[in-house]
Structure formats: C-alpha cells, structure tokens
C-alpha cells in the first residue's frame, strides 16, 4: 500500500507539473500583458482611487513570499535528505523480489542490479536526475501558482475599486439654493462601463 500511495502521489504531481508547464508555454505571450492588471492606471477608477490596490499589496506580497519560501525550503530538505539520512531502503521489484538500494530522493525502483545501483557513480547519476526533476517541478509550480494568485488578488482589487466607483456615482447633489443644474453623471457612468469592459476584454483575450 505504501508503494502504491507514493507512486500515486508521484504520478499526480508529475501530471500537474506537466499541465502547469504546458499552460505557461502555450500562454507565454499573454502572461506579460496580463500583468497590466496590477497597474493602478489600468482603469480610470483605479487611477482615481489607489487605496484598493495598495490595500491588497502587503497581503499579496506576504503570501507570495511565504509560498515561495516554503516551497524552496521543502525542496532543499528533499534534496539533502539522502545525503543526511543515508542508509538503504528495501524496494519490491515487479517480479516480487526485494531489492536493497541506497536511499535516494524518491527511492524509485531502478532496472539495474543492487550492486550496480549502489555503486557511487550510478547512484550519483540517479540522484542528479532526481535533483533536476525536483528543481524543475518546484519552479514550475511556484511560477504558475504565484502568477495565478497575483491575478486573482489584483482582479479582486480592480473590481472592488470599480464597485466603489459605482456606489459613489451620483452622490454629489447640487445646491438647490444656488440653482445649480442637476448633473446626469453620464460621463462618469460611461467611464465606469468602459473600465468594466476593459477588464473583461483582458480576461477574454485569445
């Protein structure tokens, strides 16, 4: 059961890594343009009231730093574990026999004899391959997840700023004693609608 559970986690993690890497490659030309959403001046209402964007910035920065730090600290522990712990592990081959191999990062069964695998050059080769896999895997996860979190938080901030703009629309009532004309706020309404459409257009590009 332990072997099946570990293999299942390994396969799921690999598939997720492939999916996220594929998404980053296919949408590479859209990633930079998407970051325009984080600019204060992307919308007129966001330019006029930057408090919503500024309010989200510390929380987002802290979350991204914590996520990246935890990810790479975990990666470092995984990479150093075989060197620090050392020892040997027992692995069941496909034919049912038990192999005793030097501990590695994933401790996956290798199609070589125990003596060959346990030799320093061969073990080091498998160790280097697993190091490369781990670094690529974690880097793809961090890039994808940090970009997704940034977009989500900034979209919330932009929509909050737009909501506040709609709520204040038409709140200024002219002084009746001065016979000031009643404004129709048409221009402000058009600007708010254009801001809304600009965000939707950015999300539907491609």
Automatic annotation (TrEMBL):
GO MF annotation: an example: olfactory receptor activity
Record's subcellular location: Membrane
Coiled-coil parts of chain: none
Primary localization class, coarse: membrane
Membrane topology: Multi-pass membrane protein
One Gene Ontology CC term in the entry: membrane
Keyword Transmembrane set for record: yes
Bilayer-spanning residue ranges: 6-25, 63-85, 125-144
GO biological process, one term: signal transduction
Highest taxon listed in the record's lineage: Eukaryota
Record's keyword terms, sorted: Membrane, Olfaction, Receptor, Sensory transduction, Transducer, Transmembrane, Transmembrane helix
Protein name (record): Odorant receptor
Organism, as annotated: Sipha flava (yellow sugarcane aphid)
């Amino acid at each position: 059961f332990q072997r099946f559970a570990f293999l299942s986690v390994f396969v799921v993690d690999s598939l997720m890594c492939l999916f996220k890497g594929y998404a980053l490659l296919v949408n590479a030309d859209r990633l930079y343009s998407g970051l325009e959403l984080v600019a204060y001046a992307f919308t007129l209402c966001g330019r006029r009231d930057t408090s919503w964007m500024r309010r989200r910035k510390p929380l987002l920065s802290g979350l991204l730093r914590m996520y990246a730090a935890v990810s790479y600290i975990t990666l470092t522990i995984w990479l150093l574990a075989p060197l620090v712990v050392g020892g040997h592990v027992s692995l069941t081959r496909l034919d049912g026999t038990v192999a005793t191999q030097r501990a590695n990062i994933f401790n996956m069964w290798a199609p070589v004899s125990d003596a060959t695998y346990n030799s320093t050059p061969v073990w080091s080769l498998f160790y280097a391959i697993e190091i490369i896999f781990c670094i690529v895997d974690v880097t793809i996860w961090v890039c994808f997840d940090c970009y997704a979190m940034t977009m989500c938080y900034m979209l919330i901030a932009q929509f909050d700023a737009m909501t506040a703009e709609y709520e204040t629309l038409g709140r200024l009532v002219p002084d009746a004693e001065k016979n000031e004309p009643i404004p129709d706020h048409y221009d402000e309404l058009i600007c708010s609608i254009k801001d809304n459409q600009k965000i939707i257009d950015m999300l539907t590009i491609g």
